[in-house]
Write a structure and sequence with these properties.
eight-stranded mixed sheet, alpha/beta, Aminopeptidase, seven-stranded mixed sheet
């Protein structure tokens, strides 16, 4: 099959699986009020409109911390904070409501303007807001009364779901309403997480000035499991002080409550939302609690993926060439490492007849995913399978990866050590080294 070099065709073919995958999915997007003061905000609204046009169901939750600060200062007030949380005094509430309302109206106006000078020019989008968030006082914490600062008591998830199913975008502000009719100032991230949980969203996304998460050595964390995320948060002092742990805590909370994936993306970089959702490796930091990467038994549908993976290694002489027919016949011996629908690794385990031994073969990891511990994980999976099949000895043959196998606990043995059935098939021209591991 000829591979096109046309950049447009390559792009559309690469992005089309993600368009298909995200259509009909529900995503809660959290946007800090600071974003409105950045030059990229019109681009964020435009990108949200593109998602909407591509069939994504959207809930947008905005903050207004910066605007509240400005409004309070203008009115002669100064806020007090406790552990990063604003203490909302009752007399400050009218100023806060004014600031939050102004942000909401500004966002609604941008969605209603037909999005001039953007790819979505002329689009008509229904944006709906309402009293979907039931709030209660945050109360007295560490002896400090937080007054009109509140927390989410409940979410009218069914009303929100009805709107997004009717092709509307739900826009929520950082205010909530009590059953007695009082207004409370809430964290927009808490609202976003609570809404994502209530409507069983597929993703939660939070914009962040700092973008994806790095440690103090500059290492990028493009993805974190829930356990890794908790470890990162617990060790805040070990990592880059520029990172917004507020955003990472929101992602952790969303996944902990059942949202499969949550993402931190940059509010300062144009197109970060589209890059995160419509490219394989994204453009931010993803926290996940589902099987984003899985090692599993191979299926017949994986043959194409395995061929794409091993062909470059066959051409270099690292692996023995296998035909499609041979792979299809032997697919039950293979395990694959799958990332977001793409086969990025494989390994095969061939049992020897009438023996407690087997052969490990065709170990391969896609180049851009190497050196991240995936090959040892794949090997551990195969070894676990071997034990389940009463295989206690594993042999493997290699010409160019001897050091890796030594590092995984294998020892070099002579060709004569191979079981007779495998020794009879040994290719002396290839002159592979033989390695052995006792399980």
């Amino acid at each position: 099959m000829n591979v096109t070099t046309d950049p447009f065709l390559q792009w559309i073919r690469n992005v089309s699986p993600y368009i298909h995958d995200h259509r009909g999915k529900t995503i809660v997007v959290m946007v800090p009020g600071d974003c409105l003061h950045q030059g990229m905000f019109s681009g964020i609204v435009s990108d949200l409109a593109i998602l909407h046009a591509l069939g994504v169901r959207l809930v947008v939750v905005h903050g207004a911390r910066l605007q509240i600060d400005e409004e309070l200062e203008q009115d002669g007030f100064v806020s007090r904070f406790h552990k990063g949380v604003r203490i909302t005094e009752r007399e400050h509430l009218p100023s806060i409501m004014k600031a939050v309302g102004a942000v909401r109206w500004q966002i609604e106006a941008m969605f209603s303007s037909g999005l001039p000078n953007s790819p979505m020019y002329g689009s008509k989008i229904k944006v709906r807001s309402g009293n979907f968030i039931n709030a209660m006082p945050k109360g007295i914490i560490d002896g400090i009364d937080h007054q009109m600062t509140g927390k989410v008591r409940s979410v009218d998830g069914s009303a929100i779901s009805d709107i997004i199913k009717d092709n509307g975008i739900v826009l929520l502000s950082s205010l909530g309403y009590s059953i007695t009719g009082e207004v409370f100032n809430l964290s927009f991230a808490e609202i976003g997480v609570s809404v994502a949980n209530a409507i069983k969203a597929d993703k939660a996304i939070i914009f962040n000035d700092d973008g994806p998460v790095y440690d103090k050595e500059g290492k990028l964390y493009s993805e974190l499991t829930l356990a890794q995320c908790k470890e990162f948060l617990d060790g805040e002092d070990l990592h880059s002080p520029s990172n917004s742990y507020f955003s990472l805590r929101a992602c952790y909370s969303a996944c902990k409550k059942g949202v499969p994936r949550s993402h931190i993306i940059s509010s300062a970089e144009d197109g970060s939302l589209l890059k995160e959702l419509y490219t394989r490796d994204g453009h931010g930091t993803m926290v996940y609690n589902d099987s984003y990467e899985v090692i599993r038994q191979a299926k017949l549908e994986d043959v194409n993926g395995i061929i794409n993976l091993i062909t470059p290694l066959e051409q270099k002489g690292i692996l023995v060439k296998r035909s499609r027919e041979k792979l299809e016949r032997e697919i039950d011996y293979f395990s694959v490492l799958e990332k977001d629908g793409l086969v990025i690794g494989c390994a095969a385990l061939y049992p020897f007849d009438e023996s407690s031994a087997g052969e490990l073969a065709c170990v391969a990891i896609m180049k851009q995913y190497q050196k991240a511990g995936r090959a040892p994980s794949l090997l551990a999976h195969v070894e676990k399978q071997a034990v389940a099949r009463n295989i206690s000895e594993i042999y493997t043959l290699t010409t160019q990866t001897a050091h890796w196998f030594l590092g995984q606990g294998f020892v070099e043995v002579q060709v004569d050590a191979l079981p007779a059935s495998r020794k009879a098939l040994y290719n002396f021209q290839r002159n592979s080294k033989v390695f052995f591991k006792q399980l």
